[in-house]
Write a structure and sequence with these properties.
The complex is a heterodimer of chains A (300) and B (718). Helices cover 37% and strands 30% of the residues of chain A. Chain A is an alpha/beta fold and 300 residues long. Chain B is an alpha+beta fold and 718 residues long. A five-stranded antiparallel beta sheet of chain B has the order 15-12-17-18-16. The chains are: A alpha/beta (300), B alpha+beta (718). Chains A and B meet through α2 and α3 of A and α1 and α5 of B.
Chain lengths: 300, 718
């Protein structure tokens, strides 16, 4: 488990990360969302042991990460601008990481290169940005570390490759102890892969929640009532987050389990009622609005 | 994977990453060493008559000897290349993120990169040395001596490389930008030399009693200072060797042995500092000018203040000692440097005048230094130790009895330095009284430019008789402090005190090399001469030499300051001094220029013992010119005519030959030559050399003694 307790980091007069506390459980995909300059990269650089927090502590499996090769050997960090040796080929980079990571799987590396149609002898400096991202992910996967920290890794990948990478992650998650931490400014990219999400804003964590838990506890009901009085009563009865009216159709977003909400809706014998799936984006809008933030301004 | 394996893997990785570095080093040394050796050997084969030594000796003592200077310079440059190429990744955020996220301790990463850099120099360098030795073997000139010298050659070059490399690594670790790293390396490499120059210049410019005595040891806490000393020693390590048929210069690495420890210590200290900076260096420092924000004000102070003073001194030098220009230069440089440093620190021109408080602090420090020197706040010029602090006093009365002097190693040394080294007056009250008086008077020699008219200067000069003395206060704690004073011998009290100093036997013995020489080194051939005649005596027996020196010593000890000031020597005594003989077999002992040199001493009319002993050897110091044997004396000079505007005009040089025996006799009695006149304390006051001089065929060239020139000559050259 990765634990960050009250960590802060400043660069001169700029406070990049302020008193962040996050727990990342093993086996879950942790999404780190925030606008540019929110502190995502700084946070990941601290998690990977590149930066030393000014205050607070970061542990990986209860081991402090800074200047600790034992902890670092369980982490593979893909920065937003990954470094490749001058004039190196993918094979050179595999040897390079193989020197550092004892569990680096060379056979799998070449296998994955082939699957991604990357030439192992082609110089990386001739690769496109997306190809470099693919190579970074392949190197990270083959390093066989427990934790993989990805900074904006999905940016630049085409939809097919994005899906391919996601499926690789999914495969890793099922086959071994693997915990990716994915930072992105695009919430939609993480929606279908993350189990847990943390939102960073101006160096601090607004919230950290389990995605499924959030999805199970908030729903939108699309319904048509016989009269408006029933609708008003229902809104009072439900833990309503938001309601909207489109002609005779009412869209009500309310907290609570699906069955509880539908029971209350059916009590008023609506003409029509059904539960609509909520996107991650909608969930966050709802959640953060509750805490007083206009999330649309923060993220989208 | 063990950490040991990782360490070597990292070195291998580093080599792969910058393989261009050892390749470049190999090519440069290949051309400078192997190709040059082949060319030289070929030249020696073709033009063997031009060389006084064999190819084997060339390989031993020249190629792997004195040419080490080139290897050292190359080693220093490649050290910077290796350090910068090996550690410049610290300046790239991308690379810092990659390397610092790896499961490797910084200590291991540093050690592997550091060692890799050394190997990237050492491997191609050693390979080239091996190739050179193979070339030597292929040409049949390989010797054990060549191998031994090659090892020393590589060792001393490596020492210099290591020192500069450590400093450059420290500079790269301290900074976050490659250009700033190179500047920082330059500053760190030469800082001690620059500080030394500034300090010496400030003392010289502002303290009138300041004098530099002996070889000035440049501070060596920066490598350039130490390397400069090594280069100097390399020059000294070349020694003459002569055998029956060949002569060449032996290169003796043994003389450089004293540098090994200082170089190792310096390299170790800088490497340790570089390591500490590397380990403490924050990853976010990549791209900044200075990696450590807290170090910025310290660095700024250490650069801005000396740089300002240095530029101030340059202005002062250009405008001939003007304090106003010194201040102007200092202020100008201070403002520019302060702004430039801030701009560099922030990479922002608008930040030029940030940190005003720190700028004020630096300005205050600079002003304080200037005030200290300008107003001698610490009392440098007025310093005279208490009698109780003094163990002895070295004295040099400059210009009085300047002998040709040598150090123990046979090198020439100035008469002043010889005197200060050998004279140690104890319990001579006159010295300290003279010192106190001179320090209080603070006399300064002025030149004509200090006066409105030349007449005013002449009047000033007539009333004074300035001379310089240097004192070396030998303090109880073993330190000697030197001061130079200007004294005025027209002051009766000063004259008395200086006479008492000169009268001190220890002074006379200390200043006179012949009394300090080993009698066995005084050669048998001794020349006695007066103005017109000389004789070579073969004083083969040591006892005879001893007698002559003893007679001279007895007379010499009676000599007074007034004698010298008022009497012209009548002759000279020339002794040959032999250094240990070099010709012959071994490479051992050395002479820097020659194996024998001569010392000559004045003989005054008062030296009765010497004169009478010389007479018994067959030479009469009082022998006058035999005018009957002189056909004529030629006197050459100028005539001066007064022009319409009142100014003197000089005619072309012309010569008059005086043939009349009486005129010849009168002229001969008025003559002296430079070999005798230069012993006079006030040479110029004796010589009437501005209008005419004389030549006696088969004898010599002479000057007329002032006020003794015959009337008829004066008339002819009016």
């Amino acid at each position: 488990m990765i634990t960050a307790s009250n960590i802060s980091k400043s660069f001169g007069s700029i406070e990049a990360v302020k008193d962040i506390s996050v727990n990342i459980k093993n086996g879950e995909v942790f999404g780190l969302i925030g606008t540019n300059g929110a502190g995502k990269s700084t946070f990941l650089r601290m998690l990977s042991g590149v930066l030393k927090p000014d205050s607070g502590a970061i542990t990986i499996d209860d081991k402090p990460v800074y200047e600790n090769p034992a902890a670092k050997s369980e982490v593979f960090y893909i920065s937003d601008d990954q470094y490749f040796l001058p004039n190196a080929t993918p094979a050179d980079m595999a040897k390079f990481y193989g020197d550092y990571y004892a569990g680096f799987d060379m056979a799998r590396f070449y296998d994955m290169l082939a699957k991604f149609s990357l030439d192992k002898r082609r110089k990386i400096n001739t690769f496109s940005k997306g190809m470099k991202k693919q190579l970074s992910v392949i190197l990270g996967i083959c390093a066989n570390t427990k934790y993989m920290l990805c900074d904006e890794t999905f940016d630049g990948l085409d939809p097919v490759m994005r899906q391919a990478v996601k499926s690789i992650f999914a495969g890793e998650l099922t086959s071994r102890d693997f915990t990716p931490v994915i930072a992105s400014h695009n919430l939609r990219e993480l929606e279908d892969i993350c189990d847990c999400v943390g939102i960073l804003h101006q160096g601090g964590v607004l919230m950290q929640k389990d995605l499924e838990e959030m999805k199970l506890n908030i729903h939108t009901v699309q319904c048509v009532f016989k009269n408006s009085e029933d609708e008003k009563s229902l809104l009072q009865l439900l833990n309503t987050v938001k309601s909207e009216k489109r002609g005779s159709l009412s869209l009500i977003t309310a907290r609570g389990r699906k069955e509880e909400i539908m029971q209350k809706v059916n009590f008023f014998e609506p003409v029509f009622a059904e539960i609509l799936p909520l996107s991650l984006e909608e969930i966050f809008i709802s959640e953060t609005e509750v805490v007083g933030y206009d999330i649309k301004k923060l993220i989208f | 994977m063990t950490s040991k394996n990782l360490f070597f893997k990292l070195i291998k990785q580093d080599w792969k990453k910058r393989i261009w570095c050892p390749i470049i080093i190999f090519i440069v040394y290949f051309i400078a060493m192997d190709v040059s050796l082949l060319m030289r050997l070929d030249a020696m084969r073709q033009y063997s008559d031009r060389y006084s030594y064999t190819p084997a000796i060339f390989l031993e003592h020249y190629f792997f000897g004195s040419s080490i200077e080139g290897a050292i310079v190359g080693g220093c440059l490649t050290a910077i290349l290796c350090a910068v190429s090996g550690f410049c990744w610290l300046h790239s955020r991308t690379q810092v993120d990659a390397y610092n996220s790896m499961p490797v301790k910084r200590t291991v990463m540093f050690a592997s990169k550091f060692l890799s850099g050394i190997l990237q120099f050492l491997a191609p360098f050693a390979l080239n040395i091996a190739i050179c030795l193979l070339i030597g073997a292929a040409n049949g000139i390989f010797t054990v001596q060549a191998l031994a010298n090659a090892v020393c050659y590589a060792f001393y070059t490596l020492l210099c490389f290591l020192t500069v490399y450590s400093v450059a690594v420290m500079a790269v670790s301290l900074t976050g930008n490659i250009i700033i790293s190179l500047i920082a390396a330059g500053v760190l490499l030469s800082y001690s030399v620059i500080i030394f120059i500034i300090k010496e210049s400030l003392f010289n410019e502002f303290f009138m009693t300041c004098i530099l005595i002996g070889e000035q040891k440049v501070y060596s806490f920066s490598p350039i200072g130490l390397i400069a000393q090594l280069m100097d020693a390399v020059n000294g390590a070349r020694t003459s060797y002569r055998a029956a048929e060949i002569s060449y210069r032996v290169f003796n690495y043994g003389t450089l042995g004293g540098f090994v420890l200082p170089f190792i210590l310096q390299a170790a200290v800088y490497a340790a500092l570089g390591f500490a900076l590397y380990v403490k260096r924050p990853s976010e420092a990549a791209g900044r000018a200075i990696a450590f924000r807290r170090a910025e004000p310290v660095i700024k102070t250490l650069i801005v203040i000396p740089a300002s003073l240095l530029i101030g001194l340059c202005f002062m030098e250009i405008i001939e000692g003007s304090f106003g220009w010194f201040v102007f230069g200092t202020v100008l440089c201070f403002v520019i440097m302060s702004a430039v440093m801030e701009i560099i620190f922030r990479f922002d021109i608008r930040a030029a005048f940030n940190n005003k408080k720190h700028m004020l602090f630096n300005a205050a420090c600079t002003a304080l230094i200037i005030i200290i020197f300008r107003y001698d706040v610490l009392g440098y010029d007025t310093y005279v130790p208490l009698d109780t602090q003094l163990e002895g006093c070295a004295v040099s009365i400059d210009g009085l009895l300047d002998y040709d002097c040598r150090n123990e190693d046979g090198r020439y040394t100035s008469a002043r330095e010889y005197r200060l080294k050998n004279v140690d007056l104890k319990n001579n009250a006159a010295v300290m009284e003279l010192a106190r008086k001179a320090a209080a008077q603070k006399l300064q020699v002025k030149d004509s430019s200090d006066f409105e008219t030349y007449e005013m200067y002449e009047e000033y000069a007539r009333e004074r008789e300035f001379h310089s003395i240097v004192l070396g206060y030998k303090l109880a704690r073993g330190k000697t402090i030197y001061r130079q004073y200007i004294i005025d011998l027209n002051d009766d009290d000063t004259h008395r005190l200086l006479s008492e100093v000169f009268a001190d036997e220890d002074y006379k013995l200390g200043i006179t090399p012949i009394f300090n020489e080993d009698i066995s080194k005084v050669a048998g051939e001794t020349y006695l001469s007066n103005l017109f005649y000389n004789v070579e005596l073969d004083l083969g027996e040591e006892e005879k030499r001893r007698q002559l020196i003893e007679a001279y010593r007895q007379d010499y000890m009676q000599l007074t300051l007034d004698d010298i000031m008022n009497t012209m020597p009548i002759g000279r005594l020339d002794f040959g001094i032999s250094e240990e003989n070099l010709a012959g077999a071994e490479y051992s002992r050395l002479s820097y220029y020659t194996d024998e040199y001569r010392q000559n001493y004045p003989v005054y009319p008062q030296f009765t013992n010497t004169i009478s002993l010389a007479k018994s050897y067959g030479f009469d110091y009082n022998k006058e010119l035999d005018v009957e044997n002189v056909e004529y004396i030629e006197v050459s000079g100028y005539k001066y005519t007064t022009q319409g505007d009142g100014a003197d005009a000089q005619t072309d040089s012309f010569t008059i030959a005086y043939t009349d025996k009486e005129q010849i006799r009168q002229i001969s009695e008025a003559l002296t030559d430079s070999s005798l006149a230069h012993w006079s304390y006030d040479y110029n006051s004796y010589i009437y050399n501005d209008k005419c001089s004389a030549v006696i065929p088969n004898y010599n060239s002479y000057y007329f003694i002032k006020d003794e020139t015959p009337e008829f000559v004066m008339e002819d050259f009016k």
